[in-house]
Amino acid sequence: MSARPQSSAPSVPLAATEPSAEPSAAGSSAAEHSAEGERGPGGTAGQQPAVAVMGSGSWGTTFAQVVADAGTPVMLWSRREEVARAINEQHRNPDYLGELRLPTAVRATTDPAEALRGAAFVVLAVPAQSLRDNLAAWRELMPAGAVLISLMKGIERSTGLRMSQVIASELGWPSERIAVVSGPNLAIEIAGRQPTATVVAASSLPTAEAVAGLTANAYFRPYTNEDVIGVEFGGAVKNVIALAVGMASGLGLGDNSKASIITRGLAETTRLALAAGGRQQTLAGLAGLGDLVATCASPLSRNRTVGELLGQGLSLDEVVRQTKQTAEGVKSCAAILALGEELGIDLPITEAVVNVLDGRLPVAELPAGLLSRKLKSEHQ
Ligand SMILES: NC(=O)c1ccc[n+]([C@@H]2O[C@H](COP(=O)([O-])OP(=O)(O)OC[C@H]3O[C@@H](n4cnc5c(N)ncnc54)[C@H](O)[C@@H]3O)[C@@H](O)[C@H]2O)c1
Ligand SMILES: O=P(O)(O)OC[C@H](O)CO
């Protein structure tokens, strides 16, 4: 599949080089990916930018498929040799995506230098808390002029920074070359090519448009947005709200309770994002409400599942042991709460989740704790 809807991929001056040929064979050499000759602006007709996706878990691998299905070959960086081999030889990533078959235009390497060489777009798809160390290790390999695309939905625990801020601070990268992709994007559904929409946010509209042009295909529809702050808070906080909804579900509570947490969760996410400089409209959109609903409603969500297991009475240690994939809310929630305190913003659901995870609040007492708070206006 390579159907690309009409898009006016704009000219972003990308100083990198292009792949020599469309990849065809399984296990073909990563050298094919590296560039020869000068590259023009990303996404211009007749030229394919080189794309590196750093991280081959559920979302990194799926995003690589999205880009390949939109017509551009991708080189994935995998930490583990067996994952890279499975992608190159069987066109599968069984650890993360089961039997789903990947396009042959997605290839993998464990060598970050090979993945990054000549890339015009570098997609970052590692756990939020490891990003800074990963960037430090890759700093010298980052192609000057590339657009960096964050797929991560988390807040750095040690600094309270959003992922685009970590990228800017760790690499000294200009903000106009950093984009964020976030929305109702459960990886497994997208890997199965089920239609979805998303948001590509960047402080520079041409950068957001370039990334939208790179990713738009028959089942993936990106909308651009210049509100990076709102989009990143929407993605990070919804994970915490999904933990709370999962807890309610695990406690056997019904849809009224869950809808109340989702709606009040959106209220606290919006309060925080606005205080930090985000825009209300963004939180009412795909990266806010849209992602919140998808994550809180879906049994595919890792965050909701972690919450549900806690609600059923498992300890956090037991849950973490049986959750192989990244549930960002667990590690980001305390940093989000601290940001709220810094900005003078009340985040009652986040606070309750932090207290449950830290063992200060028995999960069974979470509903009563939220309901017994002082009465107030819905709009405060
Ligand atoms: N899976 C989804 O549906 C989805 C959708 C949208 C956004 N996201 C976000 O994307 C990010 C990545 O999530 P994912 O679902 O791909 O996670 P995952 O757990 O499926 O995969 C994480 C990947 O990072 C690698 N990794 C783990 N520790 C690492 C380290 N210290 N250094 C480098 N690599 C390391 C793993 O080997 C794996 O390849 C998260 O922030 C998540 O919130 C996920
Ligand atoms: O599985 P989760 O909870 O990390 O959620 C995945 C995506 O962020 C949903 O958009």
How would you portray this structure in words?
The protein has 380 residues and is an alpha/beta fold. The protein folds into two domains: 30-226, Rossmann fold (3-Layer(aba) Sandwich); 236-371, N-(1-d-carboxylethyl)-l-norvaline Dehydrogenase, domain 2 (Orthogonal Bundle). It is 46% helix and 10% strand. The protein has 17 helices and eight strands. Strands 3-2-1-4-5-6-7-8 form an eight-stranded mixed sheet, sandwiched between helices. Helix 1 (58-69) links the parallel strand 1 (51-54) and strand 2 (74-77). The protein starts with 50 loop residues before the first strand and ends in a 9-residue tail after the last helix. Bound molecules: nicotinamide-adenine-dinucleotide and SN-glycerol-3-phosphate. Nicotinamide-adenine-dinucleotide binds at residues 55-60, 79, 96, 125-128, 130, 134, 151-154, 185-187, 325-326, 328.
- Which CATH C-level class of the largest domain is it? Alpha Beta
- The spatial strand order of the largest sheet comes to 3-2-1-4-5-6-7-8
CATH architectural grouping of the largest domain: 3-Layer(aba) Sandwich
SSE-based structural type: alpha/beta
List the helices and strands and how they pair.
Layout: E1 51-54, H1 58-69, E2 74-77, H2 81-90, H3 94-97, E3 106-109, H4 112-116, E4 121-124, H5 131-138, E5 147-150, H6 163-171, E6 178-182, H7 187-191, E7 196-202, H8 205-215, E8 220-225, H9 228-250, H10 255-276, H11 280-283, H12 286-297, H13 302-311, H14 316-322, H15 328-343, H16 348-357, H17 366-371
Parallel strand pairs: 1-2, 1-4, 2-3, 4-5, 5-6, 7-8
Antiparallel strand pairs: 6-7
Helix pairs in contact: 5-6, 9-10, 9-12, 9-13, 9-15, 9-16, 10-12, 15-16
The structure holds nicotinamide-adenine-dinucleotide (NAD) and SN-glycerol-3-phosphate.
Nicotinamide-adenine-dinucleotide is lined by residues 55-60, 79, 96, 125-128, 130, 134, 151-154, 185-187, 325-326, 328.
Enzyme class: oxidoreductase
Catalytic activity: sn-glycerol 3-phosphate + NADP(+) = dihydroxyacetone phosphate + NADPH + H(+); sn-glycerol 3-phosphate + NAD(+) = dihydroxyacetone phosphate + NADH + H(+)
Binding site for sn-glycerol 3-phosphate: 153, 183, 238, 291, 301-303
